[in-house]
Amino acid sequence: MKKYIINSFIGLLSLVCVACFDDESTGVTTAVSDIEIEGIDTEKTYQHIGYVGETLSIPVTITSGYREDQLEYKWWLIDEKSGTEDEEGNTIPPVLIGSEKSLSFPVDIPTGKYRIRYQVPVKETGYTVYKQAKLMVTTEFSQGFYVLKETSDGHTEMDLITKDDEIGADLIQKKLGAALDGKPHSFWTNYNQWYIDEETDKMSTAHTIVVITESGDIRVFRTTDLACILNRSNLLFETMDADEKPLAFFQTSQGTFYLSNKGIRSTPSGDSSYGAESSGKFAYPQGEPMGGKFVYHDVASMMGGYYFWDEIGNNLLSVNYSGQPAPLLTMLGEGAEETQNLAGFRCLACGVNKNPEPFETDSKGHFVLEASSGERYLYRTQTQMGMMQFYDGRSLVPANSKLAKATAFSTNGLQATYLYYLCENKLYGCDFTQTVIEDIEMPLTGIPGDETLTYVSNVFWNGYFGNANSNFDYLVIGTQKGNEYNLYMYQMVGGIPKGESVKTIKGGTGKLKGVRFLSQEFDSGDWDFNIPVYSIVD
């Protein structure tokens, strides 16, 4: 909240410092009311794709007691560098992009977040009235639902669902010339990922999509242009061993974490109050060899703790904000016999539910483990005050439960403590915080009976300091029909899907393995104030 108050104060100063990029205000009310501006939507974000011929058009109506020739019109483009100093110490001014009453601006500018400020000064007196709106410029790759999939010949590919609900298919083949070798293993979004920009030879940050395959390939794609900026050859300071198997790659405010069969590595996260400039490369791992793809953090928070299933040692572990792993135990330091050295066990799913309000630090999570005998256990975890991580017991899943036979899993992240699962081509859920497991059948409307349910996920965007008008919370259902996948996205009430799908995507090719939303409206202040912005696991 401190940041919000500061930004509001900056907004009041913006009349004399037009270049304050973090200004959260949308206009100023003055004592003079004889100039009124209509037509600028100050509540929404204007969104355009750069360098493809799109034009930002804002028709404006001016009502005033002045004649037309007594007024001027100035449209300013303000970016994050406006108001800062260049290498020679000069203040970088905003850019004048229009001097007509209405705006018609070709969006031939780099991707990023901007402010559009409209000023109407009176020529003789200098008295000025203004309004301001937000502009988001993206590329075709920089915002949308990314889809991880397996090709018909068993390799890894990626699609993108654009803002127009079109499918941009086989992006990896289009960028690299071929799909990645091996079946998909895991899929991650990272914001403000550090790397060395080869064009400038300087440290830079970018929003990225990370794809890991079962064969051990890892690719970090920059989402402005889908260039591959990190891979096995440059991910580490040292040469990556041939037998190293990447498993997970994710962020908290405290850093970006890379898990492999060699252990846990970390590097600073970009644009965070806890971060520092970095090459994006990872140093030597901490602790013993351990790792796995079933990871969740209590929230991308100021404390940055997380949990994961160590598939090397068959352990449930908690990791603190500094990256130090420890056995997952109860508040009294007990439970090692249920969480450690679980030979023959494998992890099927994990997830976390977090109160979406700022500053709320408690969260509850779970793991679903299966023994070699076929028995399944639902493990419960909890985080208190953003940093104390505990094991909260386990329940044996009844053999006659739908959960005992389920084939796909997910967790509601914001609304309710539901574990979702698919069984017998239906969607079920249970409250994972309860010691007694009770299946709840959940309605799904509009899915044809000849499609097989194969995937479930809660995909949400929950920005607070960014543009909250773009927030959403969908239960995503994926289906297969032969080698074709379809997606159905439902709004929820209390964690239960309601009504028809609000977004339906049909005709994707391949086997659906994961869905991640990538947004250009990320604000690192959400990290610093304990806000669950986006989901990282299915």
Instruction: Report the total helices.
Output: 4
- Mean of all residue-level pLDDT scores: 86
CA-CA gap between termini: 30 Å
Assembly type: single chain
What's the number of extended β-strand segments?
A: 37
Structural class based on helices, strands and sheet pairing = mainly beta
Low-confidence stretches: 1-33, 298-302
Main sheet: strands, sense, barrel: 5 strands, mixed
The dominant shape is globular
Considering DSSP H and I runs of 4 or more, what fraction of the residues is helical? under 10%
Main-sheet strand order equals: 2-9-8-5-6
The amount of beta strand, in percent, is 35-45%
Query: Roughly how many Å is the radius of gyration?
Result: 25 Å
Describe the structure.
The chain has 538 residues and is mainly β. It contains four helices and 37 strands. The strands form ten sheets. The chain has a five-stranded mixed sheet, with no helix packed on it. A hairpin with a 4-residue loop joins β14 (202-213) and β15 (218-222). The protein is globular. The two termini are 30 Å apart.
